[in-house]
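ok so i was messing around last nite and threw this chain in just to see what happens. nothing serious, just curious
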Amino acid sequence: MTTAPFGSWSSPITADLIVSKSVSIGEVFVGGDDVWWSEARPEEGGRVQLVRHRPGGGAIDVLPEGFGARTRVHEYGGGAWWLHGSDVVFVNWSDQRLYRLAAGTSTPTPLTPEPADRHGDRYADGRFTADGRWVVCVRERHESTDAEPINEIVAVRVHHNGEPAEPIVLVSGSDFVAAPRVNPSGNVLTWFRWNHPDMPWDGTELCVASMYDDQSDDGQIVVGDTRVVAGGRDESITQPEWAPDGSLLFISDRTDWWNLYQVSAEAVHELVANGVAADATPIAPVDAEIGVPQWVFDNSRYAVLADGRILVAWFKLGIDHLGVI
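result:
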Protein backbone atom coordinates (compact mmCIF):
# COMPACT_ATOMS: atom_id res chain seq x y z
CA MET A 1 0.00 0.00 0.00
CA THR A 2 1.25 3.50 -0.87
CA THR A 3 0.82 6.34 1.60
CA ALA A 4 0.66 9.90 0.16
CA PRO A 5 -0.52 13.33 1.35
CA PHE A 6 -4.13 14.26 0.65
CA GLY A 7 -4.60 15.56 -2.91
CA SER A 8 -1.43 13.96 -4.25
CA TRP A 9 -2.77 10.46 -4.76
CA SER A 10 -1.91 8.87 -8.07
CA SER A 11 -4.99 8.00 -10.12
CA PRO A 12 -5.42 5.99 -13.31
CA ILE A 13 -8.11 8.51 -14.33
CA THR A 14 -6.11 11.32 -15.93
CA ALA A 15 -7.21 14.51 -17.67
CA ASP A 16 -5.92 13.10 -20.97
CA LEU A 17 -8.03 9.99 -20.49
CA ILE A 18 -11.16 12.04 -19.82
CA VAL A 19 -10.88 14.19 -22.96
CA SER A 20 -9.49 11.50 -25.27
CA LYS A 21 -12.99 10.29 -26.18
CA SER A 22 -14.58 13.75 -26.33
CA VAL A 23 -15.16 14.21 -30.05
CA SER A 24 -16.46 17.71 -30.79
CA ILE A 25 -18.87 18.19 -33.70
CA GLY A 26 -18.55 21.46 -35.61
CA GLU A 27 -20.00 23.00 -38.76
CA VAL A 28 -22.73 21.19 -40.69
CA PHE A 29 -23.44 21.49 -44.42
CA VAL A 30 -25.98 19.80 -46.67
CA GLY A 31 -25.02 18.76 -50.20
CA GLY A 32 -27.92 17.21 -52.12
CA ASP A 33 -29.21 14.38 -49.93
CA ASP A 34 -25.92 14.09 -48.03
CA VAL A 35 -25.11 15.67 -44.68
CA TRP A 36 -21.52 16.73 -43.92
CA TRP A 37 -20.02 17.83 -40.62
CA SER A 38 -16.64 18.32 -38.96
CA GLU A 39 -15.29 16.40 -35.97
CA ALA A 40 -12.39 17.50 -33.76
CA ARG A 41 -10.76 14.30 -32.51
CA PRO A 42 -8.47 14.40 -29.46
CA GLU A 43 -7.29 10.85 -30.14
CA GLU A 44 -5.86 12.08 -33.46
CA GLY A 45 -3.98 15.00 -31.92
CA GLY A 46 -6.89 17.41 -32.29
CA ARG A 47 -7.20 16.78 -36.01
CA VAL A 48 -10.46 18.01 -37.55
CA GLN A 49 -11.91 15.38 -39.86
CA LEU A 50 -14.79 15.93 -42.29
CA VAL A 51 -17.53 13.33 -42.17
CA ARG A 52 -20.12 12.61 -44.86
CA HIS A 53 -23.40 10.79 -44.28
CA ARG A 54 -25.24 9.35 -47.26
CA PRO A 55 -28.84 8.15 -46.94
CA GLY A 56 -28.74 4.41 -46.35
CA GLY A 57 -24.96 4.36 -46.47
CA GLY A 58 -23.85 5.52 -43.05
CA ALA A 59 -21.11 8.01 -42.19
CA ILE A 60 -17.62 7.96 -43.73
CA ASP A 61 -14.46 9.97 -43.14
CA VAL A 62 -13.63 12.27 -46.06
CA LEU A 63 -10.08 13.57 -45.57
CA PRO A 64 -7.11 11.24 -46.04
CA GLU A 65 -4.33 10.83 -43.49
CA GLY A 66 -2.20 13.96 -43.11
CA PHE A 67 -5.01 16.44 -43.75
CA GLY A 68 -7.23 18.29 -41.30
CA ALA A 69 -9.74 21.13 -41.79
CA ARG A 70 -8.84 23.92 -39.37
CA THR A 71 -7.86 27.57 -39.76
CA ARG A 72 -5.52 29.82 -37.80
CA VAL A 73 -7.09 33.12 -38.90
CA HIS A 74 -7.52 35.23 -35.74
CA GLU A 75 -6.32 32.06 -33.94
CA TYR A 76 -9.88 31.25 -32.82
CA GLY A 77 -10.84 29.22 -35.88
CA GLY A 78 -14.21 28.54 -37.45
CA GLY A 79 -15.24 28.54 -41.09
CA ALA A 80 -12.46 26.26 -42.36
CA TRP A 81 -14.35 24.32 -45.07
CA TRP A 82 -17.12 24.85 -47.63
CA LEU A 83 -19.24 22.65 -49.83
CA HIS A 84 -20.52 22.84 -53.41
CA GLY A 85 -22.46 19.74 -54.37
CA SER A 86 -20.00 16.96 -53.56
CA ASP A 87 -16.90 19.15 -53.95
CA VAL A 88 -15.31 20.39 -50.75
CA VAL A 89 -12.68 23.11 -50.27
CA PHE A 90 -10.92 23.28 -46.91
CA VAL A 91 -8.10 24.99 -45.04
CA ASN A 92 -5.44 22.41 -44.22
CA TRP A 93 -4.17 22.81 -40.66
CA SER A 94 -0.52 21.92 -41.27
CA ASP A 95 0.20 24.56 -43.93
CA GLN A 96 -2.96 26.77 -43.91
CA ARG A 97 -3.33 26.48 -47.69
CA LEU A 98 -6.67 25.87 -49.40
CA TYR A 99 -7.25 22.44 -50.90
CA ARG A 100 -10.02 20.99 -53.02
CA LEU A 101 -11.26 17.44 -52.71
CA ALA A 102 -13.30 16.88 -55.85
CA ALA A 103 -16.22 14.48 -56.00
CA GLY A 104 -15.07 10.91 -56.61
CA THR A 105 -11.43 11.58 -55.72
CA SER A 106 -9.37 10.74 -52.64
CA THR A 107 -6.39 13.10 -52.92
CA PRO A 108 -6.80 16.83 -52.12
CA THR A 109 -5.43 19.31 -54.68
CA PRO A 110 -3.88 22.61 -53.51
CA LEU A 111 -5.71 25.73 -54.73
CA THR A 112 -3.42 28.40 -53.24
CA PRO A 113 0.34 28.85 -53.67
CA GLU A 114 2.76 27.99 -50.92
CA PRO A 115 3.60 31.28 -49.13
CA ALA A 116 7.17 32.45 -48.60
CA ASP A 117 6.77 32.05 -44.83
CA ARG A 118 5.15 29.04 -43.23
CA HIS A 119 1.55 29.87 -42.33
CA GLY A 120 2.10 33.28 -43.95
CA ASP A 121 -1.24 33.11 -45.76
CA ARG A 122 -4.26 31.85 -43.86
CA TYR A 123 -7.84 31.46 -45.08
CA ALA A 124 -11.29 31.31 -43.48
CA ASP A 125 -15.01 32.01 -43.78
CA GLY A 126 -15.62 31.36 -47.46
CA ARG A 127 -18.33 30.29 -49.85
CA PHE A 128 -18.45 28.96 -53.39
CA THR A 129 -19.98 31.14 -56.05
CA ALA A 130 -23.20 29.67 -57.44
CA ASP A 131 -21.44 28.27 -60.52
CA GLY A 132 -18.70 26.63 -58.44
CA ARG A 133 -15.89 28.43 -60.30
CA TRP A 134 -14.64 30.42 -57.32
CA VAL A 135 -14.35 30.40 -53.58
CA VAL A 136 -14.64 33.87 -52.01
CA CYS A 137 -13.12 33.96 -48.53
CA VAL A 138 -11.09 35.87 -45.94
CA ARG A 139 -7.30 35.82 -46.20
CA GLU A 140 -5.06 36.83 -43.32
CA ARG A 141 -1.56 37.60 -44.61
CA HIS A 142 1.46 37.73 -42.30
CA GLU A 143 4.28 39.56 -44.07
CA SER A 144 6.62 39.99 -41.09
CA THR A 145 6.70 39.23 -37.40
CA ASP A 146 6.54 42.93 -36.49
CA ALA A 147 3.71 44.14 -38.72
CA GLU A 148 -0.01 43.72 -38.16
CA PRO A 149 -1.55 40.96 -40.31
CA ILE A 150 -3.39 42.13 -43.43
CA ASN A 151 -7.01 40.97 -43.59
CA GLU A 152 -8.57 40.90 -47.06
CA ILE A 153 -11.33 39.25 -49.02
CA VAL A 154 -10.02 37.22 -51.93
CA ALA A 155 -11.35 35.08 -54.76
CA VAL A 156 -9.69 31.69 -55.30
CA ARG A 157 -10.02 29.71 -58.52
CA VAL A 158 -11.46 26.28 -57.85
CA HIS A 159 -10.56 24.80 -61.24
CA HIS A 160 -7.08 25.36 -62.62
CA ASN A 161 -4.52 23.71 -64.85
CA GLY A 162 -1.00 23.41 -63.50
CA GLU A 163 0.22 25.39 -60.51
CA PRO A 164 -2.24 27.14 -58.17
CA ALA A 165 -2.78 30.80 -59.06
CA GLU A 166 -2.43 33.72 -56.68
CA PRO A 167 -5.86 34.67 -55.27
CA ILE A 168 -7.47 37.86 -56.55
CA VAL A 169 -7.88 40.56 -53.90
CA LEU A 170 -11.47 41.85 -53.90
CA VAL A 171 -11.65 43.90 -50.68
CA SER A 172 -8.89 45.43 -48.55
CA GLY A 173 -8.21 48.42 -46.34
CA SER A 174 -10.02 47.49 -43.13
CA ASP A 175 -8.34 46.00 -40.08
CA PHE A 176 -10.77 43.07 -40.11
CA VAL A 177 -13.31 41.57 -42.51
CA ALA A 178 -15.69 38.63 -42.24
CA ALA A 179 -18.57 36.78 -43.88
CA PRO A 180 -18.03 37.48 -47.60
CA ARG A 181 -21.15 36.21 -49.34
CA VAL A 182 -22.07 36.42 -53.03
CA ASN A 183 -25.74 36.85 -53.97
CA PRO A 184 -27.57 34.14 -55.98
CA SER A 185 -27.10 36.07 -59.24
CA GLY A 186 -23.35 36.31 -58.68
CA ASN A 187 -23.21 40.09 -59.18
CA VAL A 188 -23.19 41.49 -55.62
CA LEU A 189 -20.79 40.78 -52.77
CA THR A 190 -21.60 41.51 -49.13
CA TRP A 191 -19.39 41.38 -46.03
CA PHE A 192 -18.89 43.16 -42.74
CA ARG A 193 -15.82 44.99 -41.46
CA TRP A 194 -14.43 46.65 -38.35
CA ASN A 195 -11.29 48.43 -37.21
CA HIS A 196 -9.16 48.79 -34.10
CA PRO A 197 -9.92 49.39 -31.27
CA ASP A 198 -13.42 47.99 -31.78
CA MET A 199 -14.34 44.37 -31.33
CA PRO A 200 -17.02 42.95 -33.66
CA TRP A 201 -19.59 42.99 -30.86
CA ASP A 202 -18.91 46.74 -30.38
CA GLY A 203 -19.29 48.15 -33.87
CA THR A 204 -19.16 46.86 -37.45
CA GLU A 205 -20.28 48.00 -40.90
CA LEU A 206 -22.24 45.87 -43.33
CA CYS A 207 -21.05 46.52 -46.89
CA VAL A 208 -22.00 45.59 -50.44
CA ALA A 209 -20.32 46.04 -53.80
CA SER A 210 -21.03 45.02 -57.36
CA MET A 211 -19.07 42.01 -58.58
CA TYR A 212 -18.23 40.98 -62.14
CA ASP A 213 -16.79 37.66 -63.30
CA ASP A 214 -15.55 37.79 -66.89
CA GLN A 215 -16.08 34.00 -67.24
CA SER A 216 -12.74 33.65 -69.02
CA ASP A 217 -10.51 30.59 -68.74
CA ASP A 218 -7.91 32.67 -66.91
CA GLY A 219 -10.62 33.98 -64.63
CA GLN A 220 -10.87 37.57 -63.45
CA ILE A 221 -13.22 39.04 -60.87
CA VAL A 222 -13.69 42.78 -60.33
CA VAL A 223 -15.66 44.49 -57.55
CA GLY A 224 -17.09 48.00 -57.66
CA ASP A 225 -17.30 50.77 -55.10
CA THR A 226 -18.01 49.80 -51.51
CA ARG A 227 -21.45 50.85 -50.23
CA VAL A 228 -22.37 50.75 -46.54
CA VAL A 229 -25.74 49.15 -45.86
CA ALA A 230 -25.83 49.70 -42.11
CA GLY A 231 -23.74 49.80 -38.96
CA GLY A 232 -21.05 51.95 -37.40
CA ARG A 233 -19.06 52.34 -34.19
CA ASP A 234 -22.19 51.84 -32.05
CA GLU A 235 -23.93 49.05 -33.96
CA SER A 236 -22.81 45.44 -34.15
CA ILE A 237 -23.82 43.67 -37.34
CA THR A 238 -23.09 40.04 -38.02
CA GLN A 239 -24.02 37.03 -40.17
CA PRO A 240 -25.14 38.51 -43.49
CA GLU A 241 -26.81 35.99 -45.80
CA TRP A 242 -28.65 36.17 -49.10
CA ALA A 243 -32.20 34.88 -49.46
CA PRO A 244 -33.14 33.04 -52.68
CA ASP A 245 -35.10 36.12 -53.84
CA GLY A 246 -31.95 38.29 -53.70
CA SER A 247 -32.83 40.13 -50.50
CA LEU A 248 -30.11 40.60 -47.89
CA LEU A 249 -30.54 39.34 -44.34
CA PHE A 250 -28.35 40.27 -41.38
CA ILE A 251 -28.30 40.45 -37.59
CA SER A 252 -27.99 43.83 -35.82
CA ASP A 253 -28.03 44.97 -32.19
CA ARG A 254 -29.42 48.44 -32.99
CA THR A 255 -32.20 47.86 -30.41
CA ASP A 256 -29.71 46.44 -27.88
CA TRP A 257 -30.88 42.98 -28.90
CA TRP A 258 -29.24 41.04 -31.75
CA ASN A 259 -32.27 40.71 -34.04
CA LEU A 260 -32.83 39.80 -37.67
CA TYR A 261 -33.28 42.40 -40.44
CA GLN A 262 -33.90 42.30 -44.18
CA VAL A 263 -33.12 44.61 -47.11
CA SER A 264 -35.10 43.96 -50.30
CA ALA A 265 -33.37 42.96 -53.52
CA GLU A 266 -34.57 46.21 -55.12
CA ALA A 267 -33.07 48.30 -52.32
CA VAL A 268 -29.77 46.43 -52.58
CA HIS A 269 -29.70 47.12 -56.33
CA GLU A 270 -30.37 50.84 -55.84
CA LEU A 271 -27.65 51.07 -53.21
CA VAL A 272 -25.07 49.25 -55.32
CA ALA A 273 -25.92 50.99 -58.59
CA ASN A 274 -26.75 54.51 -57.44
CA GLY A 275 -25.71 54.85 -53.80
CA VAL A 276 -29.30 55.22 -52.60
CA ALA A 277 -29.53 54.44 -48.88
CA ALA A 278 -31.23 51.13 -48.14
CA ASP A 279 -33.84 50.69 -45.42
CA ALA A 280 -33.70 47.53 -43.33
CA THR A 281 -36.93 45.96 -42.10
CA PRO A 282 -36.95 44.11 -38.77
CA ILE A 283 -38.15 40.51 -38.99
CA ALA A 284 -40.15 39.33 -35.97
CA PRO A 285 -38.55 41.68 -33.38
CA VAL A 286 -37.97 40.00 -30.04
CA ASP A 287 -36.33 40.87 -26.72
CA ALA A 288 -33.82 38.07 -27.16
CA GLU A 289 -30.45 37.43 -28.78
CA ILE A 290 -30.44 35.84 -32.22
CA GLY A 291 -26.82 36.82 -32.78
CA VAL A 292 -23.78 35.68 -30.83
CA PRO A 293 -20.38 37.34 -30.30
CA GLN A 294 -18.06 36.95 -33.30
CA TRP A 295 -15.31 35.01 -31.52
CA VAL A 296 -15.05 32.55 -34.40
CA PHE A 297 -15.89 32.70 -38.09
CA ASP A 298 -19.04 31.42 -39.75
CA ASN A 299 -21.48 31.52 -36.86
CA SER A 300 -24.91 30.37 -37.99
CA ARG A 301 -28.02 31.29 -36.01
CA TYR A 302 -30.54 31.30 -38.84
CA ALA A 303 -31.11 29.69 -42.23
CA VAL A 304 -33.48 30.47 -45.08
CA LEU A 305 -35.58 27.46 -46.05
CA ALA A 306 -36.54 26.57 -49.62
CA ASP A 307 -40.09 27.87 -49.12
CA GLY A 308 -38.84 31.28 -47.92
CA ARG A 309 -39.41 30.72 -44.22
CA ILE A 310 -36.49 31.31 -41.86
CA LEU A 311 -35.25 28.83 -39.28
CA VAL A 312 -33.97 30.81 -36.30
CA ALA A 313 -32.20 30.07 -33.02
CA TRP A 314 -32.51 32.65 -30.24
CA PHE A 315 -31.22 32.92 -26.69
CA LYS A 316 -33.40 34.21 -23.87
CA LEU A 317 -33.19 33.93 -20.08
CA GLY A 318 -30.34 31.45 -20.31
CA ILE A 319 -32.12 29.07 -22.69
CA ASP A 320 -31.61 28.48 -26.42
CA HIS A 321 -34.76 28.18 -28.53
CA LEU A 322 -35.38 27.05 -32.12
CA GLY A 323 -38.29 28.15 -34.29
CA VAL A 324 -39.51 29.12 -37.76
CA ILE A 325 -40.66 32.57 -38.88
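not much to say yet. The chain has two helices and 24 strands.
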